[in-house]
Amino acid sequence: MKKKKILKRVLIGIVAVVAVLAIAFFAYTKDYYRASDLANSSLVSDEEVNVEKLDDETYVFKPTNETNTGIIFYPGGKVEYSAYAPLLHELASRGVLCVLVKMPANLAILDTNAAKGIKEDFPEVENWYLSGHSLGGACASMYLAKNGNDYKGLILLAAYSNKDLKNSNLDVLCIYGSNDGVMKMDSYNDNKKNLPEDAKEVVIEGGIHSYFGSYGLQKGDGEPTITNEDQINSTVDAITEFVFD
Prior knowledge:
Largest sheet: 8 strands, mixed
Radius of gyration: 20 Å
Shape: globular
Number of strands: 8
Structural class: alpha/beta
Number of helices: 6
Strand order of the largest sheet: 1-2-4-3-5-6-7-8
């Protein structure tokens, strides 16, 4: 009888801990950065870009002209994924098909394999890149550590790879803002060793962590000296030069 009482107390304790963790996780994920009005307006098609849904949650920004180059994009942690619509819409207007995936609870770490199966829906695209912002970039590198042969390259926005990709055949581009107050530069520099020696780096002068998307200013970020639109345009310039070089 005594053993049963002890076991019951242990089980009650475990249930209580699980409940507390669940509540904490829910509270953590409920507090996220919302997409701006500009971002939402970028989900509308125009003469240069058709914005479609691949499924109920995956947006496709498709150039009206034919293209053989595509990017699958992982959003940053605790950021509403549609906040990256301005960036991807502009990329599509320059000839890059872009696929924006939604992550569970806005955390890419909960679905690092989100890119799986997407390429098959676009057989016309020959050159595929995986890209992501912040946590999304780190998770994109995790996916490519196991699936690198299926992609031409990796594009990291204010992010770094903690997986060893140095001996891969991937083309890698790293972009960050000079005034980024969120990304830990020590970690960024330490993890450069995980990238191929010919990885390219672009620093956007006056840019910040938050301005790769359109969701306002992230807590702890630096002070920008350029506009959100300017940073997105500079990012698109760097990416298109990289993928079409």
